[in-house]
């Protein structure tokens, strides 16, 4: 029988990558927990945006929602619903701005 090789020590780069992956996974778990515990959709969307920008090392980001909007037809035929893109939330670290839609 051969002796198993002892584990190699991690390079600094591999250690940083592992730490980053651990942080990203923790962020995903935080969002998952919030989805099950939080009932305010604005708070959930803000958290998703913050964690997404953190995980991707982005300077900012935005969330747009697709809504189905009723479009009246001519001649009294059935109305139809068309998809519309609506701005929801934005975040920019350089400008130190956070915004969400004003109702």
Walk me through what this model shows.
- The protein has 103 residues and is an alpha+beta fold.
- It has one domain.
- Strands 1-2-3 form a three-stranded antiparallel beta sheet, covered by helices on one side.
- A hairpin with a 4-residue loop joins strand 2 and strand 3.
- Helix 1 packs antiparallel against helix 2.
- The radius of gyration is 22 Å and the shape is elongated.
- The relative contact order is 0.13.
* Domains (count): 1
SSE-based structural type: alpha+beta
**DSSP strand count:** 3
- Uncertain segments of ≥5 residues (pLDDT<50)? none
Going across the major beta sheet, what is the strand order?
1-2-3
Rg to the nearest angstrom? 22 Å
> In angstroms, what separates the terminal alpha carbons?
72 Å
Secondary structure tally, helices: 2
Beta percentage is 25-35%
Major β-sheet, in short?
Answer: 3 strands, antiparallel
Oligomer: single chain
Determine the mean pLDDT.
81
Q: Judging from the principal axes of the Cα atoms, what is the shape?
A: elongated
- The percentage helix is 25-40%
> Helix-strand pattern, N to C?
HHEEE
């Amino acid at each position: 029988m051969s002796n198993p090789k002892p584990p190699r020590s991690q390079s600094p780069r591999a250690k940083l990558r592992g730490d980053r992956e651990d942080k990203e996974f923790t962020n995903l778990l935080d969002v998952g927990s919030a989805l099950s515990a939080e009932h305010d959709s604005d708070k959930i969307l803000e958290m998703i945006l913050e964690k997404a920008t953190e995980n991707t090392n982005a300077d900012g980001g935005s969330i747009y929602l697709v809504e189905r909007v009723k479009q009246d037809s001519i001649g009294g035929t059935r109305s139809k619903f068309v998809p519309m893109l609506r701005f929801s939330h934005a975040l920019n670290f350089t400008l130190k701005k956070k915004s969400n839609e004003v109702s």
